Automatic annotation (TrEMBL), chain B:
InterPro entries: ABC_transp_permease, BCAA_transport_permease. It is a multi-pass membrane protein. Belongs to the binding-protein-dependent transport system permease family. LivHM subfamily. PANTHER family: BRANCHED-CHAIN AMINO ACID TRANSPORT SYSTEM PERMEASE PROTEIN LIVH, HIGH-AFFINITY BRANCHED-CHAIN AMINO ACID TRANSPORT SYSTEM PERMEASE PROTEIN LIVH. It comes from Bradyrhizobium yuanmingense. This is Branched-chain amino acid transport system permease protein. Its main location: membrane. It is found in: Cell membrane. The keyword Transmembrane applies. The chain crosses the membrane at residues 12-35, 42-61, 67-87, 99-118, 153-172, 202-223, 280-298.
Length: 439, 305, 277
């Protein structure tokens, strides 16, 4: 980030210059919004297109841009020119990393207690399950993007494979969740290898776009292969998970009846909560463990310099494939969980937006950082929840958030990497040194 | 045979539209080295602006079709170009020297912003317009009654594309701006040292790419008679496929790739299945990247050790 | 030239499109000796290196490696990582290629990847924490520490490789290559950018690698103080062909070599040489 900037525009200093900038920005906004916001079109009942004007909205938007530019310019002058200094001073970063050491255990304990604290708040429990699902997806994708440095824009495909594997095996053959869960992971990993084998020779953006295409192909096949997948209507009536064979329902064989307590629908929610927590922690444990094994070090080395890896006798193809398959497997587990939790799945749940969301979580978390990913998932999904009921604005805000986060902290929340082995003392490595891979 | 000829015409017309979008991808990739993920949505915005301009002009009582078309073309090119400029300024320029993933994610974010901005501003419903340019020519009528049609709109799409390509080729090969663009493509630092205004050149690249996407948007609107807020995503990926197929960074390649994708998609729909036409396009992207990563007209890349 | 050859290059040719980078090049490197490949810029030295280490597939010719046990390997048939893994040829790069975001120690651990992979039962044993793997990892750390001592970087073991000074990075890259326990060590301009003191230390390091460990070395170098002092045998290239070879003494006095370096024709070179001596 110390590269010389070709950006030469000087920050405006005087009031006149400030106003000039704001007026120009407002004029640009006026042109941009003039037709798109100032005029609203709609197809009438007879198929004829009609329109009406919305000059009020247009005026307020332009005014907002005018005011916003002034505020931003003032802030810029107050903070100093962007880019010449770190937004977060090193001392503060050190403090953050110190907090980080205690934050992770504290967060874990709090998470374990969530069902106890919020037992009667179904909404919070549901939200917590959702957050944990994304934490798991984030950790899974982190293996591919954060460690191995392979940019995967089609991660949702493996999530879909896992979900449909469980849904179809359970509804067609009546297999239990606990048999299907590993199968879903294996199938997703298998698809990961199948896709990975031809495409992992590709570099950088090409890999990204191919994985994106793969994700879309899977979704389109799910929509169109109606005999197998039920097409756009999806699969419904997916069995709920059991506690090793004991259903969590009202029946006489149910857990409540066996324990002799009164049945409550919350039991199942709490069970699902701990199930996804366990799956997420399994992902986390495996990742931390793998990082300290030769395979994990090879992943990171691959991200740092692929040519050097080859010169050291590392089979880069199999190394990439294992990363891809491992990430896909965790995605498959998460998919199976998603299917059993929802009881209904359809291709709509596996759009590119999901892939982008998970990728945004990984990048915002600070590539390769487990804690960062968890925090990012919490922030993202929590932030999303604030816009519940405003579905259309939700993605608009999400898009802006992605842009602004990239400008603000392209390296993510946790900006350092922990070494996997040390002689005397483990020292965190600044993320400025860590490469982001080219795949 | 007649059916084949008809599909050939349809495919070439669709391919022209893809080619126009693909040029935007290929130019930006050539100079900045990033996939401008939001470019498909810029195309969508172009279509919407063309639609709205049409509505206004018609309600103003204009009837001269050539005049209307010209005004719509100019307005949508101008406003969409400003969109392209603004996007680069806000979302990409601050990240130009950042690490490689950042502009890509910023572009994905921008794509979401544009898609949903359009949905919020204009609603989610498909927007149809009445057929505007009607009529056509019957090229051939076979004894069993099958007719090969070449509609006026098809002629217009192809002619507009050819004219724009001619202007554009002249721009890149013979003007100062074109020379600056090629210089930045080779080496930005060196170009800057030699007095090329790199910022402005990159801005202009986005402006030109967006203007061409706007033309594609207008053509799409006229050809299919509708626009919707989600059309940019798939069209964008297909146009990107076209750019890669032609050899990313190569302008004639983008057009050639566009035509190829248009033909493949049309023939696939005509002879196999409409449902899987997008699957076919995406599969081609994968196959091309694996077996021909430099595309049809791209320069081979020698690995530097 | 007599003795036991570890590497023989036979009529090696490499073309890029219409450009011939290396033409019919033949030479050999002796076991437990230091062989230098020198020549002006653009002579094709790095291309030869890339052919030997599998980054390029030669257009023609053969490259034969003979291990200590007499096993012969045709390098032109192996590709990519297999040359390092099976043929045990390690290399460094002209523009240092470390893993900058990993620590110095981690860099050396990655070099022992194949050994550790086997020890970790291809990850499965390692994942459950088998003692056999833990022992192997301990031995790997010991080997790494040993090399860090040799290249004088032991107290930097836990620093990021990207934070090392340039000269330290060069030495670390050699240590990393040596951690693969190679039969042949190929060094691409190891002295480039080093100051006189660092250069002298490099000489000592390379001589100790040859004398103490008996590892054969093939190196490309521009720095004549390094080449002349430590090489046992020198091969001179220009414009993709071999123009001379022999001991440092023989090469130094060869008018063709001087002509190639000074860019003059032979007669002038002889004149320059005579006036100088």
């Amino acid at each position: 980030m110390t590269a010389p900037s070709t950006h030469t525009t000087k920050p405006a200093t005087g009031i006149a210059a400030l106003l000039k900038t704001a007026v120009i920005n407002a004029l640009i906004a006026l042109v941009l919004f003039s037709l798109m916001v100032g005029i609203r079109t709609e197809a009438g009942s007879d198929g004829q297109l009609t329109y009406w004007t919305r000059f009020g909205e247009l005026a307020s938007l332009v005014a907002a841009v005018f005011g916003g530019s002034i505020v931003i310019e003032l802030l810029r002058q107050w903070i100093g020119p962007a880019g010449t200094e770190r937004l977060v001073p090193p001392a503060l970063q050190k403090g953050v990393s110190l907090v980080g050491r205690y934050l992770a255990p504290a967060l874990l304990i709090f998470t374990l207690l969530v069902p106890v604290i919020f037992y009667n708040q179904r909404y919070i429990l549901d939200l917590a399950i959702l957050v944990l699902t994304y934490v798991m997806l984030g950790w899974g994708l982190n293996v591919v993007v954060g460690l191995a440095g392979l940019l995967d824009l089609g991660y949702v495909a493996f999530y879909a494979v896992g979900a449909y594997s469980y849904a179809l095996l359970a509804t067609n053959f009546g297999w239990s969740f606990w048999i299907c869960l590993p199968l879903a992971g294996i199938l997703a990993a298998f698809w990961g290898v199948l896709l990975g084998f031809p495409v992992l020779r590709l570099r950088g953006d090409y890999l990204a776009i191919v994985t994106l295409a793969f994700g879309e192909i899977i979704r389109l096949v799910l929509i169109n292969w109606q005999d197998l997948t039920g097409g756009p209507n999806g699969v419904s009536g997916i069995p709920r998970p059991t506690l090793f064979g004991i259903p969590l329902d009202r029946s006489d064989d149910g857990l409540a009846a066996k324990l002799g307590i009164e049945y409550s629908a919350t039991h199942r929610i709490v069970f699902l909560f701990y199930l996804i927590l366990a799956l997420a922690l399994l992902t986390n444990w495996a990742t931390i463990r793998l990082r300290r094994l030769p395979i994990g070090r090879a992943w990171e080395a691959l991200r740092e310099d692929e040519v050097a890896c080859r010169a050291l006798g590392i089979n880069t193809t199999t190394t990439k494939l294992t990363a891809f398959a491992t990430g896909a497997m965790f995605g498959g587990f998460a998919g199976a969980f998603f299917a059993t939790r929802q009881g209904f799945i359809s291709p709509e749940s596996f759009t590119f937006q999901e892939s982008a969301l998970v990728l945004a979580i990984v990048v915002l978390g600070g590539m390769g950082s487990q804690l960062g990913v968890a925090l990012a998932a919490l922030a993202m999904i929590g932030g999303f929840e604030l816009f519940r009921g405003l579905e259309t604005y939700r993605m608009l805000v999400f898009g802006w958030a992605m842009v602004l986060i990239m400008i603000w902290r392209p390296r993510g929340l946790v900006g350092h990497r922990a070494p996997t082995v040390y002689l005397k003392k483990a020292q965190a490595i600044s993320s400025d040194l860590v490469k982001e891979g080219h795949g | 045979m007649d059916y084949f000829a008809q599909q050939l015409i349809n495919g070439l017309v669709l391919g022209s539209i893809y080619g126009l979008i693909a040029i935007g991808y290929t130019m930006v990739y050539g100079i900045v080295g990033m996939i401008n993920f939001a470019h498909g949505d810029v195309f969508m915005i172009g279509g919407f602006i063309a639609l709205i301009t049409f509505l206004i002009l018609i309600s103003l009582g204009l009837t001269a079709i050539p005049l209307i078309l010209l005004v719509v073309l100019l307005v949508s090119m101008a406003i969409t170009a400003l969109y392209g400029w603004t996007i680069e300024r806000i979302a990409y320029r601050p990240l130009r020297h950042s690490f490689r993933l950042a502009p890509m994610l910023s572009a994905i974010g921008m794509s979401f912003v544009l898609t949903n901005y359009s949905q919020v501003a204009q609603g989610a419903r498909v927007k149809p317009i009445p057929p505007f340019i009607t009529g056509g020519h019957t090229l051939h009528e076979s004894p069993d009654g099958f007719v090969i049609q070449l509609s006026n709109i098809q002629i217009m799409v192809v002619i507009t594309t050819i004219v724009l390509l001619a202007i554009f080729t002249w721009l890149v090969s013979s003007t100062r701006l074109g020379r600056d663009m090629r210089a930045c493509e080779q080496d930005q630092t060196m170009a800057a040292l030699l007095g090329v205004n790199v910022d402005r050149t990159i801005s202009m690249t986005f402006v030109i790419g967006a203007a061409l996407a706007a033309v594609a948007g207008l053509m799409y609107l006229l050809y299919y008679g509708l626009v919707d807020f989600f059309m940019g995503f798939v069209a964008g990926i297909k146009a990107f496929t076209a750019a890669v197929l032609g050899g990313i960074g190569s302008l004639p390649g983008a057009m050639l790739g566009g035509l190829a994708i248009g033909l493949i998609e049309t023939f696939w729909s005509a002879y196999f299945s409409v449902e899987y036409k997008d699957v076919a396009a995406f599969s081609i992207l994968i196959v091309v990247l694996i077996f021909m990563p430099t595309g049809l007209l791209g320069r081979p890349e020698v690995e530097k050790v | 030239m007599s003795g036991d050859k570890i590497l023989s290059v036979d009529r090696l040719t490499m073309r890029f499109g219409g450009i011939v980078a290396v033409q019919d090049l033949s030479f050999a490197a002796e076991r437990k000796k230091i062989t230098a490949l020198i020549g002006p810029n653009g002579a094709g030295k790095t291309t030869v290196f890339n052919c030997i280490t599998g980054f390029y597939k030669p257009t023609g010719g053969a490259i034969r490696l003979t291990h200590d046990d007499g096993k012969e390997i045709a390098l032109q048939r192996l590709n990519d990582f297999r040359i390092a893994k099976q043929a045990k040829v390690a290399r460094t790069f002209q523009n240092i290629r470390l893993f900058p975001g990993m620590t110095v120690l981690e860099n050396l651990m990655v070099a022992q990847h194949n050994m550790l992979m086997r020890a970790s039962g291809f990850t499965l044993l390692g994942l459950v924490g088998a003692p056999a793997y833990r022992d192997a990892e301990k031995r790997a750390i010991d080997l790494a520490s040993d090399w860090l001592k040799r290249v004088n970087l032991l107290d930097r073991a836990d620093d990021a490789a990207g934070n090392l000074a340039y000269g330290d990075q060069r030495r670390l890259e050699i240590a990393r290559a040596m951690c693969t326990v190679p039969a042949l060590l190929c060094l691409d301009e190891p002295a480039a950018g080093l100051n006189a003191r660092e250069s002298a230390a490099l000489n000592e390091l390379l001589l100790s690698i040859r004398n103490d460990l008996g590892t054969s070395i093939l190196l490309i170098e521009h720095d004549m103080s390094v080449v002349m002092e430590i090489s046992d045998h020198i091969v001179v290239m220009d414009h993709g062909v071999k123009i001379a070879q022999g001991t440092p003494r023989e090469v130094r006095d060869d008018p063709k070599v001087i002509a190639a370096y000074l860019g003059t024709d032979e007669e002038e070179a002889v004149a320059v040489m005579e006036s100088g001596s």
